[in-house]
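Listing S7. Sequence submitted for prediction.
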Amino acid sequence: MSDTTNGKFQQELFAALESRLSGKEDFDTFVENLAAAYASPPSARYNDDFFFDIIKPALVALIRFKDDTAKELRHYKDFISEKGCASEGTDYAVEILENTLDGIDDILGSYDVQPFRCEDTKFNPRRQNVVKKLTAEHTDQVKTVAESLSDGYERRGYVISKEKVAAYSAQSKTGEDA
C-alpha cells in the first residue's frame, strides 16, 4: 500500500471507531477486549461447546452406526439360535461385534456423550422416539413404553439422540393410530 492509501485507511478506521465508541468506557472496553483476544492462546478463544458443535454430526453418525450394528447383531444371534448353527466361528463373530459396540461407547464417552434409558414406562417425547407402534389392549397402556430398542445419548444434560422405543398407541374405529 502506498503512504496516501495507508493514511486514508487509518483515517477511515479511526472515524469508524470514533462513531461506534462514543464514550471513554466504550473505548476502554474495546481496547481491553482487543488486547485479551490478541494475548489469549488459541485454545482459550473457543470453548468446548464450540468444538462439540463441529463434531456433533460425526458423533450422531457414529451413534446411528452403533444402533444399526446392534440391530444386526440381534438378528444374527436370533439366526444362529433359530438355525442351531452355533460354532467357534459364530461365537467369534458375535464377540467381534460386541467389542465394536463397546469401542463405540468408549469413543462417545471420550466426548462426554453418555447412553441413557428412561426408567419411567410413560412415553417421554423429549427423550424418546417411537420407532415401533403397538396397539394397546387396555386404555391404561396408551402412551406407555413396551420396550426400549436402543439407548438414547446425552451430553451434559442435553439429548443428542433420543432413546428408540416400542410404545403402545390407541387405535380408533377407523383404524388410525392415536
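Caption to Listing S7: primary sequence and predicted C-alpha cells for the chain studied. The CA atoms of residues 66 and 101 lie 6 Å apart. Residues 114-178 form a domain with the Nucleotide Exchange Factor Grpe; Chain A, domain 2 fold (CATH 2.30.22.10).
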